[in-house]
Amino acid sequence: MSTAATEPASDRAKGDRTRGDKGEVLVDVQDLKVHFPIKRGIIFDKVVGHVYAVDGVDLQIRRGETYGLVGESGCGKSTLGRAILHLEESTEGTVTFDGQSLTDLGGEDLRKRRRDLQMVFQDPMGSLDPRQSVESLLVEGMKAHGIVGDAEAAMPRLKQLLSDVGLPAAALKKYPHEFSGGQRQRIGIARALSVDPELIVADEPVSALDVSVQAQVINLLADLQEEYGLTYLVIAHDLAVVRHISDRVGVMYLGGIVEESDAADLYANPLHPYTRALLSAVPVPDPDVEDTREQILLSGDLPSPANPPSGCRFHTRCPWRQESRCDDERPQLRLVEIDGTTGSHKVACHYAEQIASGEIQPHDVETQTEDKPKELREAEGDEVADDIPFT
Amino acid sequence: MTTTTPETARRDPRGAEPLLSVRDLTVTFKRQGEDPFVAVDGLSFDVRPGQTVGLVGESGCGKSVTSLAIMGLLPDRGNTVTGSVELDGRDLLTLSNKQMRDLRGSDIGMIFQDPLSSLNPVVPIGRQVTEVLERHKGMSRKSAKPVAREMLHKVGIPDPDRRLTEYPHQLSGGMRQRALIAMALACEPRMLIADEPTTALDVTIQAQILALLRELVEEMDTALIMITHDLGVVAGLCDEVNVLYGGRLVERGDRHPLFHDPHHPYTGGLLSSVPSLEGDAAERLNPVPGSVADNLPWTSSCAFAPRCSNAIERCREETPAAVASGDRVLRCFNPLGGQASPAESEEDRR
């Protein structure tokens, strides 16, 4: 590898790279859709339906902020994160990163651009190659992006990385299995940091960890952001964790963002019925709160993303559902101004104002059995299964 | 939707005789070429009918091994279980495998963490529920079917007739967990052990399942052992909370005093590690430093000492004893808030 080519890069690695102003839009997602085809057939694949994993998401992440994406499993939050990094081919829509469209990039250009976009995964054991030492894990990315020529030249940077994430320098020669879960997640974070990225997408970074270790990793992420001016997209299902680390929070339900606002505002004034239900369902480690609070118990399960309900995706489980509009008109994410909220509170609900003012009261919801599309049931041979006698 | 407000004044089950009484339960795993590993070390607690007792701790604290030992589900070889587990005065540890098989499912039910791997993938849900009734109640499959249907309905599975014929993979995660609960409750056991029953579920589904468990305990007067790492779940569900660390009980108390005024530094550390939904979000979390790998052996010190913010010299030299005062049990030389420390160290029982 030619040293001349690597010189400007190693300057960048020391943190000298010029970065745009804090607060400007770094990632701009417009109407992003990711649909996975469901294929059936023995010889010829026939597309019998689609899983609408991400279905029309608009999202802006500003430089230096932490955007938290919450939602339950199956809501498409991980797919959205991966689609932003172009790890998942998007069906429609655009992702603009720092003024450059990622959707149009391919091949070598995309590979180079990836240096600015790194990811921290949920399962630290599954995302670290068990046969590579920590040193080789960390050097790999730097070599690929031409930041360093060989492991020796990388040594000062490696030591810096390890001390940044709170691991001893002796860790370099060890292998992933020799570490505890929390330490492995630190290695994963160090690997993401090694190429000096601008954006880190962290998909459930702490959900596999014990409570006490979870807090250590959350603090570490906050420290690193301050030191390196990183931008985070944190994907998690734990609402308390997201509230703690995020500046802004988006709530996802069945492929779409239903509510978005500043973290403090969203948790103080949840406007969307789903957000309200979600927040009321989180167990709080305080017996007094647990004894007195009102829980909104949603009936049923998340409908299948292969056959999302018409109109508002949440109308099948929504206690505030109205006769008109909810069933057939999909609400757009819109700015709402209600007393007590900041000016940037967006919500996708036709009746957000009326619900907030108490004009519309919740009512009981009939449990609906979710059903797959008919073609899909046929393709899976469901009616055959129904014929199997029970006894 | 149902809006529920849990009753503030719950019935106090403490007056009743204990249904299950665990005394000095110790589980040791033999390891080839290494010292034996003591997973559970001298654990004692009681569970009364209608009472929910929580076992809380992080991975490796011995909470799941405790439940397996009570159920007699540990493998026959490679481990030793000592102490006693008395159900109605009958020591479960002395029973034969056959006798235990008769008890499991009828007197003691168990709900596991991962419903998909606890259900048989090639047998319809309905048959898995009727199987329990056939085995323990001597019912025919035909007569058990309406009971199974009723159970599925009771745990809130919509359209139970269709679900009876379906296989586990056709159900959603929450529905599978409900089916598992239906199986555990089919014979109306007096004792129910739930090992992380909601960990694999989403919060809205978790809320449904917890509400269901709460209802069942009240309705059927079942004694429930709730094993979890989630302090929020404990705060809402358990009457009495046992905090375990490194296989030993470090603190026990009723949920209100325990959460408001934790005495053991580990309990306090756990509570301050959890980000909250209220208060200042920008406030830094106070994690417990280090990890379980730093533990000292209990035999000559306090295992938690290396991670403890309150550790004093004595913690590394002596084993603290579990001292009871009222309903509280505490194993610490230098507790939070400066309570009087126990005077003598525990005698080595073995």
Q: How are the secondary structure elements laid out?
A:
The complex is a heterodimer of chains A (391) and B (350).
Chain A lengths: L2 H14 L8 E16 L5 E17 L3 E5 L6 H8 L7 E6 L2 E2 L5 H7 L3 E4 L13 H11 L6 H14 L16 H13 L5 E5 L7 H18 L2 E6 L2 H7 L2 E6 L2 E7 H6 L4 H9 L5 H6 L2 E3 L36 E2 L10 E2 L4 H6 L16 H6 L2 H6 L4
Parallel strand pairs in A: 3-8, 3-9, 6-7, 7-8
Antiparallel strand pairs in A: 1-2, 1-4, 4-5, 9-10, 10-13, 12-13
Chain B lengths: L1 E3 L15 E12 L2 E14 L4 E5 L6 H9 L7 E9 L2 E2 L5 H7 L4 E4 L3 H4 L6 H13 L3 H14 L5 H5 L8 H13 L5 E5 L7 H18 L2 E6 L2 H7 L2 E6 L2 E7 H6 L4 H9 L49 E3 L2 E3 L20
Parallel strand pairs in B: 4-9, 4-10, 7-8, 8-9
Antiparallel strand pairs in B: 2-3, 2-5, 5-6, 10-11, 11-13, 12-13
Helix pairs in contact in B: 4-5, 4-7, 5-7
Protein name (chain A): Peptide/nickel transport system ATP-binding protein
GO molecular function (chain A): ATP binding; ATP hydrolysis activity
Keywords (chain A): ATP-binding, Nucleotide-binding, Transport
Overview of the molecule:
The complex is a heterodimer of chains A (391) and B (350). Chain A has 14 helices and 13 strands. Chain A has 391 residues and is of the alpha/beta class. Chain A folds into two domains: 244 residues, P-loop containing nucleotide triphosphate hydrolases (Rossmann fold, 3-Layer(aba) Sandwich); 111 residues, no CATH class. In chain A, strands 6-7-8-3-9-10-13-12 form an eight-stranded mixed sheet, sandwiched between helices. Chain A has a four-stranded antiparallel sheet with strand order 2-1-4-5. In chain A, strand 4 and strand 5 form a beta hairpin. The longest helix of chain A is centred in the middle third of the chain and has 18 residues. The N terminus and C terminus of chain A are likely disordered. Chain B is an alpha/beta fold and 350 residues long. Chain B has eleven helices and 13 strands. The radius of gyration of chain B is 21 Å and the shape is globular. Strand 11 of chain A pairs antiparallel with strand 1 of chain B, so a sheet runs across the interface.
